[in-house]
Design a protein that fits this description.
Largest sheet of chain B: 6 strands, mixed
Oligomer: heterodimer
Low-confidence stretches of chain A: none
Order of helices and strands of chain A: HHHEHEEEEHEEEEHEHHHHHHHHHHHHHH
Strand content of chain B: 15-25%
Low-confidence stretches of chain B: 234-238, 243-254
Radius of gyration of chain A: 32 Å
Helix content of chain A: 55-70%
Number of helices of chain A: 20
Shape of chain A: elongated
Structural class of chain A: alpha+beta
Mean pLDDT of chain A: 82
Number of strands of chain A: 10
Largest sheet of chain A: 6 strands, mixed, barrel
Strand order of the largest sheet of chain B: 6-7-8-3-9-10
Strand order of the largest sheet of chain A: 2-3-8-5-7-6
Radius of gyration of chain B: 18 Å
Chain lengths: 615, 254
């Protein structure tokens, strides 16, 4: 049991450490806040834009329990629905609508006056957005789309099936704002047969079944608006992937921070701090940063979603209403935001406190352990992942999806686990390279604990890019073979840009961390007269190595699950190698990482900062 | 850890050796060596760079584990203690002073001195009272709320010595504590160490400086990981305490 006073003392030291190095703390806050904001904002916009089960029911039934679609008078309707406590007539047909010099065919809805009021059965079926609902047969309400077609405004006049009517309101179908629509008032005095009836009735499912058996169309409220679990699952998977990427970079940031404080940790050990106590303090500081990052992410994400919500109606042409906050997805963002840095801090914390106090105090790096073990672990995980994908591709349903998803994740982890060995290999092969490139390769090999998570993060992002590319190019090939066309390109471009931007951001975060960590090396380089250009190329080359290795490993990481999914899709889709995207990941990604890191190094170079200070 | 017997050496190294793994194969940093330090002694270890002085100190203070032999602190074999027990030992029995980075830069002088007590579960008020008294002993109570960056090198070392002896700790291990200090400040630090040993505590000091080693009761020479010579320092003539007027000035021995 760690005494409270010990935890307090250790946490105080951690807290002061955070305050003395605010840049890294804010980097972690940012890395937490961005996926939280994306998940909170994205899921809020998604929930707002999505048709909820209630909205789906209201579009057909209004507030009624049952809708009868059969031409019937009120007496006939009452006979068909003997247990109905309330009946509301609903006329729904196509009508010719015209005005001076313009003509259109519109959906004509006929309702009794006041039928859209809150207590009535048609409430929610349509929305009056301006003016009022018609109350007489010479009045109508029209939708903005119809008014635009007929070049009319509120107060104008239109002809419906030859009869003239004054426009007293503007009405919309909440599920189709762009539809030409006209609402007319039903003459209650004339009991004419109407196309549909809304009813308030007990046990509507039984009534609907009975009516359908008699050949009438009927829909009960409970038969509409089932939940779509796939969309929620897709959002969770996408969000989880974002947090996985963030966790890898956060782990690298925390590892760098702890390595810079190696001697402080040694000193704490020399004063009698236990490993458990230091782990708890590091976890507490990660928790603090994660709470701040999560709070910022939630506020920013929800505020952005609320600001963007009014624009949704124009985008999906439906009345989306007030922003809807999906509690389960927001809770998931909250939990992932808080737990991601904690999980990410685990390995660096164990690594930092595992050092002997003597080595920690010396400030020297311990003798690096061999990387052969990592290579073997990586190879074993990769083989297991491929086996899972192959198994999943020969199964059906949930088993297949789970096998491919799990296999892909295990294969990606295997490739990531092999990255320390590959970084070491790159470092050893760098002997003939020019100085800056050689130093960068050696740095990549020396700081494997920091660089391996970064390579894995790039690998994960690029794997998704290539997976989508395999699917899109295979679908395109499939359609081309049948002489059909389809838009697979736009989805692919969006995914490519998102994944590549993520990868570049990851590499840049890693570059910022490595710049901080190799400040001493750069002082030596400057002292021996290295040109500033060498330093910039050094920074650029470091970023390029990580991006290249991550991109190269993503080729099997993306193509293997892609092949598995294609096999699953009935085997008709041909496997097409996405050469263009492979080139993008292997060349464009390292090149952009190099360029951006070069610019970053230029901006933070002492000469430029001194010049800026003088100006 | 409680005292076992008055005659038991507070620190004993029996055939202790340490081999470090390196990229080019194992390198012997120390030993095997034998050493016994009695209660109240100030023992200085001298030797060239790479002779194993710091390794010996790290092994003596349970900062590292030997690859051969036994280290006994107050009669207890360190090899038999679990890591949590070793941590408790460092909180309650052994204090360290290094050449540099003795203090956590994010903590004030008072918080640095109180650190081992707080880690040991002592209540905050009590820990700070004791830490303030320790700072008083090194005449730095007025700088208690300063951060290390606001202290001079000598002041930082005095804070480190205050921390090394705060609470019930009996053994101080000092690795070139005067290495980064000027001669006057270095002498002040040595006087402080001497005073603590005269008050019954024990210190093992690694130094390059013969004038500082002269403050010790015994000086041991280490070369290539082995003791090559050791002798008691003659007191009186050549004793730096005499030249510093320590005997005529009681303040100097505080």
């Amino acid at each position: 049991m760690i005494p409270l006073s010990a935890l307090r003392a250790l946490f105080r030291a951690e807290w002061r450490g955070l305050r003395r190095d605010p840049a890294r703390a804010w980097l972690v806050v940012l890395l937490v806040a961005v996926p939280v904001a994306a998940m909170a904002g994205g899921s809020t916009l998604f929930a707002t834009a999505r048709r909820t089960p209630d909205e789906a029911r209201a579009a057909v039934l209004g507030a009624a329990d049952l809708r009868l679609d059969a031409l019937a008078t009120s007496a006939r309707a009452a006979a068909l629905l003997p247990g109905a406590r309330e009946l509301e007539p609903l006329g729904d047909r196509r009508a010719d609508v015209s005005a001076v010099g313009a003509h259109s065919v519109a959906r004509e809805v006929e309702l009794a006056p006041g039928a859209l009021e809150p207590q009535r059965l048609a409430h929610g079926l349509l929305r009056i957005v301006e003016g009022r609902a018609p109350t007489e047969s010479v009045e109508v309400a029209a939708s903005p789309a119809l008014l635009a077609e007929l070049r009319q405004t509120l107060g104008g006049t239109i002809d419906i099936d030859g009869a003239s009517a004054r426009i007293v309101g503007i009405v919309v179908d909440p599920e189709d704002l762009a539809a030409p629509l006209v609402l007319r008032a039903r003459d209650a005095a004339r009991d004419e047969a109407t196309s549909s009836w809304l009813a308030r009735i007990d046990r509507p499912e039984e009534a609907a079944t009975r009516l359908r058996a008699r050949g009438a169309g009927a829909t009960a409220r409970s038969e509409l608006g089932g939940e779509d679990g796939f969309e929620t699952a897709a959002l969770l998977v996408l969000g989880g992937f974002g947090f996985f990427e963030a966790a890898l970079v956060i782990a690298a940031a925390i590892a760098v921070g702890l390595r810079r404080r190696q001697r402080e940790i040694g000193l704490l050990g020399a004063c009698g701090a236990t490993r458990a106590g230091m782990h708890a303090a590091i976890a507490a500081s990660a928790l603090l940063v994660s709470v701040v990052g999560t709070a910022i992410g939630l506020v920013v994400g929800l505020a952005a979603a609320c600001a963007a919500a009014p624009l949704l109606d124009g985008w999906n042409a439906r009345w989306n209403g007030e922003p809807e906050f999906p509690a389960h997805l927001l809770a998931a963002a909250l939990i992932l935001g808080i737990t991601t840095p904690l999980a990410a801090a685990l390995l660096p914390a164990i690594g930092a406190t595992r050092l002997s106090i003597r080595v920690a105090l010396s400030g020297r790096r311990p003798v690096a352990e061999g990387t052969r073990g990592w290579m073997l672990l990586g190879g074993a995980l990769l083989a297991a992942g491929i086996a899972f994908v192959a198994w999943g591709a020969r199964r059906d349903g949930a088993e297949a999806g789970m096998g491919i998803l799990l296999g892909s994740a295990i294969a990606a982890l295997g490739l990531g686990a092999a990255s320390p060995w590959l970084l070491g290999l790159l470092a050893r092969a760098a002997a003939p390279l020019p100085l800056a490139w050689r130093l960068a390769a050696r740095d990549a090999g020396r700081f494997r604990a920091r660089n391996a998570p970064v390579v894995t993060a790039v690998l994960a992002g690029s794997s998704v890019t290539l997976l989508l590319a395999v699917l899109a190019s295979s679908v395109a090939e499939f359609l081309a073979q049948r002489g059909q066309s389809g838009d697979t390109e736009s989805m692919l471009v969006v995914a490519l840009v998102a994944c590549l931007v993520t990868s570049v951001v990851v590499v840049l975060a890693a570059t910022a961390l490595s710049t901080a960590e190799s400040a001493a090396d750069e002082r030596v380089l400057r002292a021996v007269g290295a040109d500033p250009g060498v330093m910039r190329v050094h920074a650029g080359a470091r970023a390029a190595y990580l991006a290249f290795l991550g991109g190269a490993l993503a080729i099997p990481g993306g193509l293997v699950p892609g092949a598995g999914l294609l096999e699953l899709a009935s085997g008709d889709l041909p496997f097409t190698t996405p050469w263009r995207e492979i080139a993008l990941v292997l060349v464009a990604l390292p090149a952009s990482a190099f360029g951006l890191a070069w610019i970053l190094a230029y901006l933070v170079s002492p000469d430029v900062r001194a010049r800026a200070a003088r100006d | 850890m409680s005292a076992t017997s008055v005659d038991t050496p507070i620190l004993a190294l029996e055939g202790v050796g340490r081999v470090h793994p390196t990229h080019s194969g194992p390198v012997r940093a120390l030993g095997p060596v034998d050493l016994a330090v009695r209660r109240g002694e100030l023992v200085a270890i001298m030797g060239p760079s790479g002779s194993g002085k710091s390794t010996l100190l790290a092994l003596a203070g349970a900062l590292d584990r030997p690859t051969e032999g036994r280290v006994l602190l107050d009669g207890h074999d360190l090899a038999t203690l679990a890591s949590a027990e070793l941590a408790r030992l460092r909180r309650r029995f052994v204090g360290y002073v290094f050449q540099d980075l003795n203090l956590l830069p994010g903590l004030t002088a008072l918080e640095n001195v109180a650190l081992p007590l707080e880690l040991d579960g002592v209540r905050l008020v009590a820990a700070r009272d004791e830490a303030r008294a320790a700072l008083e002993r090194v005449r730095l109570a007025h700088l208690a709320d300063r951060f290390p960056d606001d202290l001079s090198g000598g002041e930082q070392q005095r804070v480190a010595i205050a921390r090394a002896f705060v609470g019930p700790r009996a053994l101080l291990l000092a690795d070139e504590p005067t290495g980064a200090l000027d001669s006057v400040t270095g002498e002040m630090v040595m006087r402080l160490l001497r005073a603590q040993c005269d008050a019954g505590r024990t210190a093992l000091l690694v130094t390059h400086d013969a004038t500082h080693a002269a403050w010790a009761d015994r000086v041991l020479a280490l070369r290539d990981g082995r003791f090559v010579d050791h002798a008691a320092t003659p007191r009186g003539v050549g004793d730096p305490r005499a030249s510093a007027g320590a005997r005529s000035n009681p303040e100097a021995r505080r």
